[in-house]
């Protein structure tokens, strides 16, 4: 008998829709129930179901691959019982992925099925343009919409100047100056959030304080920052998903001190769109924008239309992304070779067994 979607209470507030329900049909038929993963730790995950949160086990993918491992924001098919088990993940419509902290060739998924990426940066310290460009590339590559939130306006000397600087680095992205202490622009921020929102930014940016203000209660751990450099400790130690009072859900993340790109070519094109547009007018299609004649990018720098720092940042992030991609390609080649070796070994053993038969 076909399943009828009835907007299950307890899951709709976490983002469950009729479209998701349709994709779940075969899982319903297998006796599984839908759930959204709110946190993952120590080989277990907390999954939100229609009857509330449940701790469930899951099998790690083999070979290990963080991209296939459950993470906060995933929709999952859960098998209930004495020991609930995560049986399958639903396809992700977006995912924030960076190179893994171990510097392996795998990517690390920070959050899945995200609609809005809030990039939080503190106005209490000078704007780090290079860090903002990295975070923007991460956000655009995910498939979600970035939103820059400049926090701690009450501690800033000239917040509007920083607002203009950030806006120049991120055309097409909304930039809000906020203050948790005074409540400045908090309502405006809440009105811009859609669906699933993730908070990204360095330690000390005030992400958890901002999250608590949006949630209307102290659910997220907060801490102090060092006076000498404005950096904070990792008061948020794991990613966690909680519903917002006005609708949608919020994912808080630990502060990102290392932000390495992973397969983010499209995100870089979006962040440096003006360089991509200029490059289309270079004399040579493979122009490196260095000393080549007829380079439209260098001409724009000489004319004062493009900051040279911007081009340096573009080149640096492109090199980093290409290096990460080459490591991934090498790993995939090695995995293909190992699979072929295993198949060949199995066939040889089969042939030897067959030849030994009377």
From TrEMBL:
Main function: One of several proteins that assist in the late maturation steps of the functional core of the 30S ribosomal subunit. Helps release RbfA from mature subunits. May play a role in the assembly of ribosomal proteins into the subunit. Circularly permuted GTPase that catalyzes slow GTP hydrolysis, GTPase activity is stimulated by the 30S ribosomal subunit.
Cofactor: Zn(2+)
Annotated GO CC locations: cytoplasm
Keyword Repeat attached: no
Gene: rsgA
Summary of subunit composition and partner proteins: Monomer. Associates with 30S ribosomal subunit, binds 16S rRNA.
NCBIfam families noted in UniProt: ribosome small subunit-dependent GTPase A
Full protein name: Small ribosomal subunit biogenesis GTPase RsgA
Species annotation: Actinomadura viridis
Cofactor comment text: Binds 1 zinc ion per subunit.
GO terms, molecular function: GTP binding; GTPase activity; metal ion binding; rRNA binding
Family named by the database record: Belongs to the TRAFAC class YlqF/YawG GTPase family. RsgA subfamily.
Positions of the EngC GTPase domain: 112-257
Principal subcellular localization: cytoplasm
Keywords: Cytoplasm, GTP-binding, Hydrolase, Metal-binding, Nucleotide-binding, Ribosome biogenesis, RNA-binding, rRNA-binding, Zinc
Entry keyword annotation includes Protease: no
Top-level taxon of the source organism: Bacteria
Residues reported to bind GTP: 151-154, 201-209
GO term, biological process aspect, one: ribosomal small subunit biogenesis
Localisation: Cytoplasm
Binding residue positions for Zn(2+): 282, 287, 289, 295
CP-type G domain ranges (all copies): 98-259
EC number assigned by the record: 3.6.1.-
InterPro entries: G_CP_dom, P-loop_NTPase, Ribosome_biogen_GTPase_RsgA, RsgA_GTPase_dom
């Amino acid at each position: 008998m076909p399943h009828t979607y009835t907007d299950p209470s307890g899951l709709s507030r976490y983002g469950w829709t009729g479209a998701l329900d349709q994709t779940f049909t075969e899982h319903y038929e297998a006796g599984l129930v839908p759930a959204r993963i709110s946190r993952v730790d120590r080989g277990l995950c907390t999954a939100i179901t229609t009857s509330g949160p449940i701790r469930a086990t899951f099998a790690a993918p083999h070979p290990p691959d963080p991209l296939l491992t459950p993470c906060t924001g995933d929709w999952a098919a859960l098998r209930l019982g004495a020991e609930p088990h995560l049986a399958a993940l639903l396809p992700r419509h977006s995912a924030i992925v960076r190179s893994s902290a171990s510097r392996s060739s795998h990517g690390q998924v920070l959050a899945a099925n995200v609609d809005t990426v809030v990039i939080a940066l503190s106005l209490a310290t000078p704007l780090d343009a290079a860090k903002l460009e990295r975070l923007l590339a991460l956000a655009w590559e995910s498939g979600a919409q970035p939103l820059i939130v400049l926090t701690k306006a009450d501690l800033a000397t000239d917040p509007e100047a920083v607002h203009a600087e950030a806006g120049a680095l991120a055309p097409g992205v909304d930039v809000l100056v906020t203050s948790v202490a005074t409540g400045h622009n908090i309502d405006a921020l809440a009105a811009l959030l859609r669906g699933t929102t993730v908070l990204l930014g360095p330690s000390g940016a005030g992400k958890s304080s901002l999250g608590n203000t949006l949630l209307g209660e102290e659910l997220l751990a907060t801490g102090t920052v060092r006076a000498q450099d404005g950096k904070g400790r990792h008061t948020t130690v794991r990613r966690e998903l909680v519903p917002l009072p006005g609708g949608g859900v919020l994912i808080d993340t630990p502060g990102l001190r290392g932000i390495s790109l992973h397969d983010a070519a499209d995100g870089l094109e979006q962040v440096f769109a003006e360089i991509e547009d200029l490059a289309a007018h270079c004399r040579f299609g493979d122009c490196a924008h260095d000393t080549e004649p007829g380079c439209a990018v260098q001409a724009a720098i000489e004319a004062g239309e493009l900051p040279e720092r911007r081009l340096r940042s573009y080149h640096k992030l492109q090199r980093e992304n290409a290096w990460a991609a080459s490591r991934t390609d090498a790993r995939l080649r090695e995995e293909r070779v190992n699979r072929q070796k295993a198949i060949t070994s199995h066939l040889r053993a089969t042939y030897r067994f067959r030849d030994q038969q009377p």
